[in-house]
Amino acid sequence: MSVSETPVDNGVNVEALLGAREALSTAPEAAKFNWRATCEWVNGTHSHSEVQGFFGLGEEQKHKTTFKFDADHPEIFASEDHGATPVEIVLVGLASCLTAGVAAIAQHRGIQLRSVKATIEGGMDIQGILGMDSDVRNGFDGIHVRYDIDADATPDEIKALVAQSQKRSAVFDIITNPTNVTVDVN
Amino acid sequence: MGADRKATAVVIGAGHAGLAMSRCLADRAVDHVVLERGEVANSWRTERWDSLRLLTPNWQSRLPGFGYDGDDPDGFRSVPEVVSFIDAYAEAISAPVETNTKVTSVSADGGGYRVATDRGDWIGKTLVIASGACNLAHIPKVAESLPSGIVSLTPTQYRNPDQLADGGVLVVGASATGIQLAAEIHRSGRPVTVSVGEHVRAPRVYRGKDIQWWMDKAGVQDERYDEVDDIARARKVPSIQLVGTPERSTLDLNTLRAMGIQLRGRLAGIREETALFSGSLRNQCALADLKMNRLLDTIDDWADESGLYGDVAPPHRFDPTEVDDSPPLMMNLAKENIKTVLWATGFRPDYSWLDLPVLDRKGRLNHDGGVITQAPGAYVMGLQFLRRRKSALIDGAGADANDLADHLVAYFKKGDAGKADDVSSHRGDAAVR
User: pLDDT tens digits, residue range B180-221?
Assistant: First the structure.
């Protein structure tokens, strides 16, 4: 573990996170969160999603502002390209989750980060979504994330940050493990 | 049932931990009894597979006033040899063991504890629970979805491959138990797939010395529960992937893979007849490789500081764990002819007889380095990282028993839980008498 002369500051309040973990260990009910989004069709493959409220710590919570996401498909799909494709948004979700984890774990381990950059790609054979070949799955056939990290740490310490981040990542778990999905129509 | 019998200390369990405590109590002239549901070393006699050998070398089974004096210090005891060793210890220390005495409940009684057995009740001023950390094989919830027709087996039920149906075997878990049984079953001609979750990798021999020798000498095994960052996590770390063989060979995932055993991710679910594996295998292996290299760094640093250079082979690193480019995420159990699933998914202690408010919401015993603070005068022995990293090893029982026997004596002498608590905050190993 690196010991810097100046206090490590990655902008993560680890004490608050550890305090929350301690508090939740005696009140596990408060740890139950519910995350939400709404999505409205605009036109064609273009949709508009918003994220604002969520539930956690036993009560309704709100983001400071409403966050908005437009999703669409590129013109080669005969779409108007008003936003990223939903699968790209999934990649964004994974990369940002892992990156947040890297920062938090680095803070906890006393490692000062200078830059962290993830490049993420997912391969996909679109014969699946086009219904052309039932042996081809709809989703990614694999996802590859590459990190470039500049930090006060040895290469193995940096690898350990990235490995631990995967171990604790919600989106990594969501993508690597099956999840029951229920879709109802009102 | 007759009248209640009384003792200053009632020790439950005559395995190595209970006997080490018995010896330490005798040294302190504390009258006590050791209650044993079967014979001495009962779980070694009844709950172990045939080929098992201890994961620690013979020299390392050091108990208070007892140790190995044979001519194979670097060998690994078979199960019958472990039984004889523990038997011999009970005899050597003249432990007051009541065999074939099954504890049916333990409850608070006045200032002490009523220990009900199938052969009458004992009242102890103090209580030592040394009934083992591995009484029950843990089976994950996903087992409920196993299709009928596939046999579900635990390591406590498993004896040897002959008891298995012909056909494929899915071993769930890749710690010491899982990898040992996977290798043995695969050699019997049954194709084996191993589902790999979090695991701890280490070589059997490093720089010419046993890994346990290094961990012992470098002080890794002596690391204390009140010195580690996160003791809750440290107590959950899976057992190191090790096997004790005369060849002192390393058994890790690369070995299994070279044998032709299929490696898959953690078992994430079973849908109808298809097992679903996590896509996290690569990271699980990366975590284990990094953790192993940190241990080897610690060992190398210690070797340098101690001036061992020249007496041991030079430092080196092992090949990273090889993982297929795209390990399959699904396995149709019927099509792959899987006949048996072996759940090598860990063990838990059994506290079903313990009527004391000392368990947490997950059924784990609350304790502070073996001192059960919610039940003054009650202690536990032999659990993972109880007071030291080695606490669950035979070799770890002595130091823990000494510490806890000191605490126990201070407790009943003062007859005052508050003062006894002061003793628990004493961090050194020195006697507190």
Answer: 999 999 999 999 999 999 999 999 999 999 999 999 999 999
Express each pLDDT in B306-360 by its tens digit: 988 778 999 999 999 999 989 999 999 999 999 999 999 999 999 999 999 999 9
Q: Compute the distance between CA of residue B395 and CA of residue B216 in angstroms, rounded to an integer.
A: 10
Q: How many distinct structural domains can be found in chain A? A: 2
**Closest CB from B268, B290, B293 relative to A178:** B268
Q: Which of B276, B293, B361 sits opposite A156 (nearest CB)?
A: B293
Query: How sure is the predictor about A73, in pLDDT bands with cuts at 50, 70 and 90?
Result: very high
CA distance B328 to B386: 39
A27 burial type by CB count under 10 A (0-12 exposed, 13-18 middle, 19+ buried)? exposed
pLDDT in tens, B390-424: 999 999 999 999 999 999 999 988 864 444 444 44
Contact between A106 and A138 under an 8 Å Cβ cutoff? The reply is no
Taking contacts as CB-CB distances below 8 angstroms, the residues of chain B near A154 are none
Q: What is the mean pLDDT of chain B?
A: 94
State what percent of residues in chain B have pLDDT above 70.
Answer: 95
3-state secondary structure of A176: helix
Distance from CA of A30 to the nearest CA of B (A): 15
pTM for the whole structure: 0.90
Distances (CA, A) of B142 to A30, B147, B262, B331: 26, 11, 20, 15
Interface touch A177/B286, C-beta < 8 Å: no
Q: Does B361 lie at the interface with A, CB-CB under 8 angstroms?
A: yes
| CATH class for the domain made up of B5-135+349-424 | alpha beta
Domain residues for A122? 85-176
Q: Is the pLDDT assigned to residue A43 strictly greater than 50?
A: yes
Q: Kindly state whether residues A132 and A148 are assigned to the same domain.
A: yes
The burial class, CB within 10 Å (0-12 / 13-18 / 19+), for B362 is: exposed
Q: Do the chains contact at A163 and B286, CB–CB below 8 Å?
A: yes
Asked whether residue A102 falls in the same domain as residue A134, the answer is yes
By CA distance, what is B267's nearest residue in A?
A177
Chain centre to alpha carbon of residue A71: 17
Which residues in chain B are classed under CATH 3.50.50.60?
A: 5-135+349-424
